[in-house]
Amino acid sequence: MVGQIVGYQTAYEIWQALERSYAANSRSRLIELLTELQSLKNDGIYADEYVFKKKTIAYKLASIGDPISNADQLIYLFQGLGPKYNTFVIILEARPEQPSIEEVHSLLLTYDARLQRQNSSEQLSLPQAHLASLPTPKEQQHPNSFNFKPQNQKPNFT
């Protein structure tokens, strides 16, 4: 910091130099945080972690003097959700009153858990359906079972 004020004579000149220096840093930090907020996607991370990251960026923006409204936070949050959350987003956007970020966070966790349960039950049902179509070991071991026909033999009806 001393290097930034060398050569200035008055407190006013020093203050102006520091203000210019930190203003440039603040502006670049603002752009960096806004870009991060806009580009953060829910790809491959749980909803809880996703919302936490979005909220952390919003807190950082507030700490540098550029807070984001609840409405804008929701826009950024919804923007980063994937297509599997379209129904969730449409329902919340259709509400007459705008939900809080905390309410959306809670609902998103519930919705995400529901999607995970459905996906795991679908994955279980496919192998189960396949197993149901396979012959049982009993049918495979007994050649005299109902469906057994010896090859190259004609039935004897005498």
From TrEMBL:
Taxonomy, superkingdom = Eukaryota
Region listing for Disordered, in residue ranges: 133-158
Residue ranges with Polar residues bias: 142-158
Record's PANTHER family? Answer: PTHR47481, RETROTRANSPOSON GAG DOMAIN-CONTAINING PROTEIN
Return the protein name: Retrovirus-related Pol polyprotein from transposon TNT 1-94
Q: Which organism is it from?
A: Morus notabilis
Q: What is the lineage of its organism?
A: Eukaryota, Viridiplantae, Streptophyta, Embryophyta, Tracheophyta
